[in-house]
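Hi! If you just cloned this repository, the fastest way to understand the data is to look at a raw example. We've pasted two of them here, unedited. The first protein comes first, obviously.
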Amino acid sequence: MNSIWRTAAVVIVLAATALPLRAQPISPPPEPSPPVRPRQVVSANPFGLVFDLFNVEYERRVGQSLGAGVGGSFFSDGDADYLNADVFARYYPGARPLAGVAFGVKAGMTNVADGSYFGVGFDINWSWTLGKGDHFYMGTGFGLKRLFGTGDADLIEVLPTLRILNVGIAF
């Protein structure tokens, strides 16, 4: 019986002095880092090869909901050439510049049949960034541009502006 008491005493002493066992806390998985969104895009109209219409744009994200850039276009109908160069700013209400709906303003020079004219205008655009990393860009849109100083020229003072479909690289 003595050995039972000794064993019981050892168990009681060990139990009283033992440190409580603790499991390691389960940490939540690390938060995924937000995707790195492209900050700029270069695009052009691939249909220009078919329709003798060429345009190119460069746009850069300059704020949480703003993009700014430059663009140019050329069109020839055989009799007259149209050449245009603008600077523009676009507001993206979805706070995702370079993708989504955008409302823009622009200003620049337009060279038509009988001279060069300064103009200002606005446009509405839809843009998408696609693919892994959002590096493939597509955009379309339309707008109007008012030319100043046309005077007696046989020109319409308000020109429609079109982005039939621009395709490009976002980076």
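Ok, and the second one:
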Amino acid sequence: MSGMQSLPRDALQRLTRELAGEPILWAGQPSPRLAFWRAALLWLFAVPWTAFSLAWEGIALAAFFSAEPGQRPEGVGAVLVWIFPLFGLPFVLIGLWMLAKPFLEARKARRIVHVLTETRLITAELGPTLMVTSVPPSRIVEITRKDGPAGTGTLSLSLGQYRDTDGDRLEKVIHLPGVPEATQLDRELRRLMG
């Protein structure tokens, strides 16, 4: 059974205060490695995007800096010499963000802890502040589990339907990706759902 002893020390200290004596049935963290590789598929798009954006920016900056001070273009040409480097900058920043995304996802996975007690399923994000989301198992309507490698899996918890401001029916779903021992958590949640 997954337990609190498998969690990092700082997570243990912060969650102990949050739980205040609630008995723990299951605890675990998403795999940072799986989070990294799941997001790394983005690199298939990010690498050419960033390469093209950097090439555009390099050409635009070369045109900007290559003109002699007395030979700078005037009128529309002067505006374009300023606009092209500014136009390319957001594309470069988006490309760099896409390249960093797998690392950011792995870092986020290291800070997330899932804990199941008799009364609630807790997802805690450990950062400068502790952000806790709790769901009573009695609110869960349906569980969908997708098993992955080495016992990890993704649980999708349906909390039922609601209507948005337009009157459309939407389903409230919580996704827990990369959960270790997903079968065990699924079994425990189904038992508590009643």
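That's it. A detail worth noticing about the second one: The CA atoms of residues 54 and 92 lie 6 Å apart.
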